[in-house]
TrEMBL record:
Record's protein name: Sugar phosphate isomerase/epimerase
Gene3D superfamilies: Divalent-metal-dependent TIM barrel enzymes
Pfam families per record: AP_endonuc_2
SUPFAM superfamilies the record matches: Xylose isomerase-like
Xylose isomerase-like TIM barrel domain location: 104-225
Domain of life of the organism encoding this protein: Bacteria
Record's keyword terms, sorted: Isomerase
Gene Ontology molecular functions: isomerase activity
Protein species of origin: Bifidobacterium tibiigranuli
């Protein structure tokens, strides 16, 4: 059975009112054992320590989502080491980035990124987002093929819903990229025309069928805004579906 996690985007309504992610860990710990925090909602260094302590108290696994490209202009992101140090300070196991132009990087640059992560005992992943630069099947395939050709340890977070924003088909994308997937962001979408995120049971994507094809070792994380009173219900649906 897959490990189920919660990305703190689930609590977007509370985060937009400046609730700290560290205070959400107590709630999340009652539902799952894995939490993914988001860099854009971390306001200061104090929060890094608070997240570390909260996760340690509840014996949870922590992932870190960084909304930045892993590589730019043929080089690693200039703040890569800062991001990795933040992850280490929190006790994170994995750090997720946008794919950026990793497909155009030399083998030496990719090896250096791998080495910086290994020094800190961190696993890295890249993700398809909703932009033309990072969200099309062609761009994502090229990025992942480049990493594989270079023998990189960088994994792949497959975001199930983002494909619709680039006119793609999530099922076709899954079939094309399934051999690369190391992490899975679970959500559902209303459809290809004017796509909107829905609750898991209300969208058009057959997510249960896709998750069933993943190795049991692949973490599955809920990553879409949910009203507070619906979170536990969506977690229950996900648990039954994976």
């Amino acid at each position: 059975m897959h490990i189920l996690g919660i990305n703190t985007l689930v609590y977007q309504s509370q985060l937009s009112q400046e609730r700290r992610q560290s205070t959400l860990v107590n709630e999340i710990a009652r539902l799952v054992t894995l939490v993914e925090v988001r860099r854009e909602f971390i306001r200061d260094q104090v929060e890094l320590k608070a997240i570390h302590d909260a996760v340690e108290q509840h014996h949870m696994q922590l992932f870190y989502s960084v909304p930045e490209s892993i590589a730019m202009n043929g080089s690693a992101h200039p703040q890569l080491e800062t991001f990795l140090e933040e992850a280490s300070a929190m006790g994170a196991a994995r750090v997720k980035f946008n794919q950026g132009d990793i497909k155009d990087c030399s083998a030496e640059v990719i090896a250096d990124i791998d080495a910086k992560a290994a020094e800190r005992k961190l696993a890295l992943t890249i993700e398809n987002d909703q932009t033309p630069e990072n969200g099309t099947l062609d761009e994502t395939t090229q990025a992942l093929a480049r990493l594989r050709d270079c023998g990189s340890r960088i994994g792949y977070t497959f975001d199930l819903g983002n494909w619709f924003w680039q006119g793609g088909d999530p099922v076709a994308a899954f079939e094309a990229l399934s051999s690369y997937i190391t992490d899975f962001h679970l959500k559902n979408i209303s459809g290809p025309v004017d796509p909107e995120t829905t609750m898991l049971e209300d969208g058009v994507i057959p997510w249960r069928q896709l998750v069933a094809k993943l190795p049991d070792s692949t973490p599955v994380l809920l990553e879409f805004p949910i009203a507070p009173e619906q979170v536990s219900g969506q977690v229950d649906i996900a648990k039954r579906g994976i």
